[in-house]
């Protein structure tokens, strides 16, 4: 268990199911609860579930960044927005379109499940245990998981530097927008 | 500077190995779980007990700093005072306000305390004494401390009390403002140690990073003090101003959890500072690494206590100004300087930094810190007002003249 | 220089921490003493004291010995008790008449004492209700014989309101440490300390004495 973790065992499956069911329940609670603040808290639970999924996929840096950004900053933003809403104690108003939305979401879910099941996923675990990869490819492939952070950093600065810079420009635009909203005439 | 001549024994690998030998092969996750549980149990108990002792220490030391006595009635030198406090908290009625959100109200102090315990998992107490060697440790620290804002929101909102909301909003604004300089200071440390794991930060720290990056040290200590809502940043619990801020409606054991988290935070931050900036368990001589670590954490703790005893509380707009106009540019400057130095000084083949590189960085950084300090003083410090000397009044000596 | 004020503040608190005599907390009602203080109080050297009373010294070192702490008190301090000299009191009830709150209750009976110099009544009931008293001292100013004075004590807390009524027995028996407020004759005395060991006697407490029988005969009876 303390090794590089390229094998999955019973406990990993149990944890996966617990986190998956928890995330789905939390996500349903976000849209169904009347009390907006509790809905926001369940959204936090959903984010934490997503972070757990990332850990199970052995992308722990993304998991921690998910917690840092989504739980630490975006949830705070959402809660601030909830607090500055007028008449927030009355909760979510009644919605006439619930059944059509449910049908549409069900159709979308069916489509996504069909696509997931019919794709050929290149999963590293089954490839290694099924013996479909040569030995040194297998070792090099599992070494990818040994140092995710330097690889992500390298990718961001070298291949995807344009996206990185555009993201910072977008942030700058958001800050300037916020400042101009708050500026006194 | 290895400092491990004496092995102090209580290490995770040893316990895991012991249990791994007991369990069959397919259940080795159970060995991991049990070993982790035992060590976590020990660490949590040690933390809570040391928080209780720290409350006594803080009150006595604050008294001495402020030329008064601290608690001295219960037990010799007031040593049983923490027990009296715990008994008081346990015997108080646990009130929940009528219109409050019961579940969220109860959950808020739990979340507040849990984030503190989580951070302590990353701190290596010795070269074999660690609970986890996450390769993303530093980001984990920042992420978990940013969950504190949620706990404060939950506490303030579920109390359904205007004044609790005010305190919570101000507290959250302060906390999210100070996360940015703290993260940037930690980024500078990550650059110099070339890893995000706290264990590697200590192992790569031949020269303590406090000497190498004094500006980052100062920024981190200031930002961490604000994250803990400790004087001079403790406007949240300035009881004379806003009731009690976000914990107005809490009493009994829930309030005790808030106080536990509040007094545990300086201990945890001192341990983090000792790990990141004072080279953790590294020392020399026959003293084991754990003792060095505790000594360094104690020094930082006493320094934080000294600051609490001395400086007055800042107003909320002064706090925001200090964060965004003071610490944030300084942290950016520090990050830029450290990154430039590392790029220029490191070995071009392996990318490693040697001792002499670090000392060179230290010299340059201290010079930069001095220059920044002087420049900031020149630009921002207010000059003393020149008051004119009072002119003697013609009515001054009426008594003498009358004679 | 930015931060110079902060550094000066830090030095001040460090001085408070390091220097031993900067603590000015006054502990009340008792304070914990160390073996050196106990030795000084009994007038011997520290080690002699520790040798002679090892158990007391050990208790003092672990912080369990307490001595009552008396604060310095000004002689003119008007406490919450009354000092009454029955040798000087004639039962005229001027104090009861002057009291703005009417809390003094006096019931007298003829005593047969000092019949010639003017009747001196025997006081059966002399109740002062300290629970309602505002300690204005008008009763003390009113007493023509300097029999009633303000006291110096202030530890009058009781569990019931009716226990706060001071009766004549208590007034007779309690130790007499009058305050020197409105009684300049006591103030002039050397070394008068309200909590000293000795009481002020009834002769010392008065401004003037009742005229003796001889004096009365000379001055008035022979007119």
Sequence-ordered SSE layout with sheet pairings:
The complex is a heterotrimer of chains A (185), B (403) and C (223).
Chain A: H1 10-32, H2 36-56, H3 60-83, H4 98-118, H5 124-130, H6 135-143, H7 148-157, H8 161-182
Helix pairs in contact in A: 1-2, 2-3
Chain B: H1 12-22, H2 28-65, H3 81-91, H4 102-120, H5 137-145, H6 148-158, H7 162-193, H8 198-203, H9 209-212, H10 214-227, H11 253-276, H12 289-310, H13 316-345, H14 355-380, H15 398-402
Helix pairs in contact in B: 1-2, 2-11, 2-12, 4-5, 4-6, 4-11, 5-7, 6-7, 7-10, 7-13, 10-13, 11-12
Chain C: H1 4-18, E1 30-32, H2 35-42, H3 46-52, H4 54-61, E2 66-68, E3 82-84, H5 94-98, E4 104-113, E5 120-129, H6 138-142, E6 148-150, E7 165-166, H7 168-173, H8 184-187, H9 213-221
Antiparallel strand pairs in C: 1-2, 3-6, 4-5, 5-7
Helix pairs in contact in C: 2-3, 3-4
Labels describing this entry:
heterotrimer, A: 185 residues, mainly alpha, Four Helix Bundle (Hemerythrin (Met), subunit A), 3 domains, 74% helix, 0% strand, C: 223 residues, alpha+beta, Alpha-Beta Plaits, two-stranded antiparallel ribbon, 9 helices
Provide a count of the helices of chain C.
9
CATH architecture level-2 label of the domain at 82-187 in chain C:
2-Layer Sandwich
Mean pLDDT of chain C: 80
- Rough shape of chain C? elongated
Structural class of chain C: alpha+beta
Side by side, the strands of the main sheet of chain C go 4-5-7
Strand content of chain B: under 5%
- Looking at the structure, the CATH topology of the domain at 82-187 in chain C is Alpha-Beta Plaits
How much beta of chain C, percentage-wise? 15-25%
Spatial separation of the terminal alpha carbons of chain C: 91 Å
The tally of beta strands of chain C, per DSSP, is 7
Please count the helical segments of chain B.
Answer: 15
Helix content of chain C: 25-40%
Alpha carbon gyration radius of chain B = 25 Å
Total E-strand runs of chain B: 0
Using the alpha-carbon principal axes, give the shape of chain B. globular
């Amino acid at each position: 268990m303390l090794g590089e973790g390229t094998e999955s065992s019973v406990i990993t499956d149990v944890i996966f199911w617990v986190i998956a069911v928890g995330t789905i329940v939390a996500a349903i609670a976000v849209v169904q609860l009347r009390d907006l603040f509790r809905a926001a808290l369940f959204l936090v639970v959903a984010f934490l579930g997503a972070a757990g999924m990332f850990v199970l996929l052995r992308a722990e840096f993304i998991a921690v960044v998910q917690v840092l950004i989504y739980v630490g900053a975006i949830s705070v933003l959402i809660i601030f927005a909830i607090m500055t809403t007028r008449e927030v104690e009355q909760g979510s108003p009644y919605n006439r379109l619930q059944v059509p939305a449910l049908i549409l979401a069900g159709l979308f879910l069916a489509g996504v499940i069909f696509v997931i099941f019919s794709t050929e996923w290149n999963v590293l675990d089954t490839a290694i245990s099924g013996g479909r990869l040569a030995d040194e490819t297998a070792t090099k492939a599992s070494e990818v998981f040994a140092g995710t952070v330097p690889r992500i950093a390298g990718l961001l600065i070298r291949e995807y530097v344009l996206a990185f810079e555009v993201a910072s420009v977008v942030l700058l635009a958001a800050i300037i927008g916020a400042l101009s909203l708050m500026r006194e005439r | 500077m290895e400092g491990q001549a004496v092995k102090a024994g209580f290490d995770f690998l040893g316990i895991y190995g012991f249990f791994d030998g007991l369990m069959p092969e397919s259940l080795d996750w159970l060995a991991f779980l049990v070993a982790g549980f035992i060590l976590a149990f020990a660490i949590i108990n040690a933390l809570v007990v040391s928080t209780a002792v720290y409350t006594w220490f803080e009150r006595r030391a604050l008294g001495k700093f402020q030329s008064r006595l601290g608690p001295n009635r219960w037990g010799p030198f007031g040593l049983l005072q923490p027990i009296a406090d715990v008994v008081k908290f346990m015997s108080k009625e646990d009130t929940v306000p009528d219109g409050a959100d019961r579940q969220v109200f109860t959950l808020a102090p739990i979340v507040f305390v849990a984030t503190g315990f989580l951070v302590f998992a990353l701190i290596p107490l010795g070269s074999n004494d660690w609970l986890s060697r996450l390769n993303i440790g530093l980001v984990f620290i920042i992420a978990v401390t940013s969950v504190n804002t949620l706990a404060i929101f939950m506490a303030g909102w579920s109390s359904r009390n205007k004044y609790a909301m005010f305190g919570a909003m101000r507290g959250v604004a302060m906390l999210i403002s100070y996360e940015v300089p703290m993260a940037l200071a930690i980024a500078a440390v990550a650059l110099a140690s070339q890893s995000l794991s706290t264990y590697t930060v200590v192992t790569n720290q031949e020269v303590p990073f406090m000497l190498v990056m004094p500006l980052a040290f100062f920024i981190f200590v200031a930002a961490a003090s604000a994250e803990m809502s400790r004087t001079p940043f403790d406007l949240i619990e300035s009881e004379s101003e806003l009731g009690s801020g976000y914990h107005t409606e809490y009493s009994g054991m829930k309030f005790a959890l808030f106080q536990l988290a509040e007094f545990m935070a300086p201990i945890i931050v001192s341990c983090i500072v000792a790990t990141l900036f004072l080279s953790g368990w590294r020392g020399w001589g026959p003293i084991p690494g754990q003792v060095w670590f505790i000594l360094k954490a104690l020094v930082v703790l006493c320094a934080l206590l000294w600051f609490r005893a001395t400086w007055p509380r800042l107003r909320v707009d002064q706090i925001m100004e200090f964060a965004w106009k003071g610490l944030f540019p300084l942290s950016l400057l520090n990050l830029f300087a450290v990154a430039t130095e590392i790029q220029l000084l490191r070995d071009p083949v392996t990318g490693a930094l040697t001792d002499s590189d670090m000392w060179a960085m230290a010299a340059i950084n201290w010079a930069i810190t001095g220059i920044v300090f002087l420049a900031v003083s020149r630009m921002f410090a207010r000059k003393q007002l020149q008051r004119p000397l009072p002119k003697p009044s013609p009515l001054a000596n009426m008594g003498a003249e009358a004679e | 220089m930015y931060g110079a004020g902060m550094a000066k503040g830090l030095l001040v608190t460090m001085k408070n921490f390091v220097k031993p005599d900067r603590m000015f907390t006054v502990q009340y009602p008792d304070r914990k003493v160390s073996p050196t203080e106990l030795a000084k109080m009994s007038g011997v050297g520290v080690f002699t004291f520790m040798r002679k009373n090892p158990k007391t010294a050990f208790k003092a070192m672990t912080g369990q010995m307490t001595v009552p702490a008396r604060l310095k008190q000004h002689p003119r301090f008007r406490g919450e008790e009354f000092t009454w000299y029955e040798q000087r009191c004639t039962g005229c009830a001027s104090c009861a008449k002057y009291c703005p709150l009417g809390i003094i209750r006096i019931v007298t009976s003829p005593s047969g004492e000092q019949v010639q110099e003017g009747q001196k009544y025997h006081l059966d009931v002399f109740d002062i209700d300290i629970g309602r008293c505002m300690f204005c001292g008008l009763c003390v100013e009113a007493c023509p014989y300097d029999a009633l004075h303000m006291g110096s004590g202030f530890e009058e807390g009781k569990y019931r309101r009716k226990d706060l009524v001071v009766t004549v027995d208590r007034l007779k028996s309690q130790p007499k440490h009058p305050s020197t407020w409105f009684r300049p004759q006591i103030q002039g005395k050397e070394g008068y300390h309200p909590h000293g060991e000795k009481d002020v006697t009834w002769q010392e407490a008065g401004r003037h004495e009742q005229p003796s029988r001889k004096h009365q005969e000379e001055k008035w009876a022979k007119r």
